[in-house]
Amino acid sequence: xxxxxxxxxxxxxxxxxxxxxxxxxxxxxxxxxxxxxxxxxxxxxxxxxxxxxxxxxxxxxxxxxxxxxxxxxxxxxxxxxxxxxxxxxxxxxxxxxxxxxxxxxxxxxxxxxxxxxxxxxxxxxxxxxxxxxxxxxxxxxxxxxxxxxxxxxxxxxxxxxxxxxxxxxxxxxxxxxxxxxxxxxxxxxxxxxxxxxxxxxxxxxxxxxxxxxxxxxxxxxxxxxxxxxxxxxxxxxxxxxxxxxxxxxxxxxxxxxxxxxxxxxxxxxxxxxxxxxxxxxxxxxxxxxxxxxxxxxxxxxxxxxxxxxxxxxxxxxxxxxxxxxxxxxxxxx
Amino acid sequence: xxxxxxxxxxxxxxxxxxxxxxxxxxxxxxxxxxxxxxxxxxxxxxxxxxxxxxxxxxxxxxxxxxxxxxxxxxxxxxxxxxxxxxxxxxxxxxxxxxxxxxxxxxxxxxxxxxxxxxxxxxxxxxxxxxxxxxxxxxxxxxxxxxxxxxxxxxxxxxxxxxxxxxxxxxxxxxxxxxxxxxxxxxxxxxxxxxxxxxxxxxxxxxxxxxxxxxxxxxxxxxxxxxxxxxxxxxxxxxxxxxxxxxxxxxxxxxxxxxxxxxxxxxxxxxxx
Lengths: 333, 272
Prior knowledge:
The structure holds two protein chains of two kinds. By secondary structure, chain A is mainly alpha-helical. Chain A has a single domain, classed as MetI-like (MetI-like fold), CATH 1.10.3720. Chain A is 75% helix and 0% strand. Chain A is built from 15 helices and no strands. The longest helix of chain A has 34 residues, at 99-132. Chain B is mainly α. The relative contact order of chain B is 0.14. The radius of gyration of chain B is 23 Å and the shape is globular. Chain B has twelve helices and no strands. Chain B has helices at 2-29, 51-58, 62-93, 99-110, 118-127, 134-158, 162-170, 175-204, 207-212, 221-226, 228-232, 236-271. The chains are: A mainly alpha, B mainly alpha. The interface between A and B is large, with 107 and 118 residues. Chain B: Belongs to the binding-protein-dependent transport system permease family.
């Protein structure tokens, strides 16, 4: 979902025209409009119908279905026979009593918080830095960030695996060259922590461009005279940041932090291609656990319970985010 | 002055950090076979070859995966744009009962955690007998991108003054004529931007492509590339060449949208 990000923030900014003005009714058109009244009233619903049906069918139904499935015993046998076996909350009991679930949940939370923290922090610093750079350095930085952003996840993951390769990876070779001989043949994927650190680095590397670009856009929007006024008042760099920059970009920063949290919490592809959640399950996160239980082991009921728990966590974050968004954008809807 | 040059040095170092993986992907892809896997220190390539690209291109499965990816992605994005644009026009140009709740529904649907819907999606596609068919991926990617497209396009439609459409209708255009002759052309940059971001989302998607398609001849590129070790073994040159080929379409679209986005912004500025 990396790529989806810009327009999401850019588009609402563009939409300032108050929507839904009824078209002007002029003398000539009045007669025709009255005749087509029923059609005109139905028109918006007709236009919405395809989208509404698609969303209810392809998003609404699965959401209901995941809750229903989580109360069923549904393994490969039941699936093939088409049996419906209700087990009440057994799946949840199984999941919540499993020590591994708690380890994985804790790991996912720590991973998400670190990745979001580092990427948002670095994004903000780079956005601030971009403002003071000489134009050609800024353009250079922007182009290179664009390259990182545009690279498909699987391509960048493959490159990272190659760079961190145990024997021939450029990183180990460079470290040895710099005199750190213990890195000769060092395996970066030997433990869960180390694997997740490399995955985290990859995610941060690809997430920073979006964050830096949107925060930079927000910074550029801060009126110049505010800085001049602060300068006249003799404010230091830090004071200017606190008093002028921070209030102006706070809501934007909140928004990108929430979005990053949503995205990073459910990362699957990067973690899977590095080590498939290994070594010995040490880099498994909730998204990977759900896949392993549901698809690899065909325990659909148990996996659905994990999905529901994931959705509850994500739902809490989304709820917070929406509340804030609706507060700031009240007039626009 | 000293502060500024320190900032510039930091900027250049950061640029190197962001560029390096791309640089390493391209140079590894262009190294002669046999000189990728070496203990020599080879940060700067000494000779250049395109053999690896030929290897990757002719690897079994690459071309069919490329075709599958293009087919699935383009179909899904086209459908999402067409359905999204009608919903966007309805949301932004009409006053009707339930409009506000529909707008909210779009906003929420956009944040639907698709990864957490893996199990019900899998079961649903199995019930629909679409499991193992590329059309299941088309449906999923359509659903993933639709709320985003509708929401974003609504923003772009809002940005077009409704007076322009009214003027066209006064001049004798019907609703459809006004939309086709006035709104649609002005929506151009927005349409391009939205469809490119939707394209990249679908182009990148891995989890559903892995779960819903098992047979090799129907794999999409991300899944094919994830098994590169079976395809390439330790032929990193070939794997990197395949990665480059996978990146090119995304990068081209990305560059298009950057220009169009700027064009869209300046167009808005002229309008005032």
